[in-house]
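Let us practice reading a record.
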Amino acid sequence: MVPVSPLPQQPVAVFDSGVGGLTVLHELLVSLPTEDYLYLGDTARLPYGDRTQQELRDFSVEIADHLLEAGAKLLVVACNSASAAALDTIEAHLEARRVQVDVIGVISPATQLAVAGSRSGRIGLLATPATIASGAYARAVRAADRHVQLESVACPGLASIIEAGSSFDELGLVRGYCAPLRAAQVDQVILGCTHYPLIAPMLQRIVGRGVTLVTSGAGVARSVERALAARELLNPRSQEGEYRFQCTGDVELFQALGTRFLQMPLGEVAHVELAAAVTA
């Protein structure tokens, strides 16, 4: 196949299983406002946390091909489960197709920020049970600095509670999740789920003002900027870019939840059918 070289005017594509990745898109919109963005929520097949590793790899490759056909110049996997399971697979798939497009996940950028910012060498992680079980963050921390200690806390049900809008009724539950982090005296806490930034003020109050909360979006935005600059793909325009949305499931539900997660006007959402977009 003929090599594909993207152009600066093409969009950055972001995908997730649902609306959680909009917190990552929010950081990109703020940090790189002159870029165009295309966001895809694979809501017909969520939650990804209940899927097998092979399913996540298959879904991610399929979505990557769809977004490349839409003209993406860079891919952001704004999902912890997909980043842990499929990042290497997507990169190998693009290399086999001789497509010159970078792929950025959420795990490495957040880990690098937390490790670099830690003074004590003790960092914490709040994430879904599936993400904790994957060991992806533990491996990323060891790769960044083997002397840094990671205190991982699985938070079953927290993402669903946040999405339902009832997180402020669950203060006791959130305190319980944060207790091991306080006991370990961490000075950085990685929010290892794209839903968690929505309750960052609550988490900050619980863990204390001396602890830095590290979101995936902040790290991803830095990584995206460096990757685009390295390939000379930063959009040269001076005005704000455009952003648009697609989902594989219920458009109205995506719109209803999406505005809260994006914290900006959502606009129209297009429904797309993927070859295997069926529920389990």
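A brief commentary: The chain has a mean pLDDT of 92.
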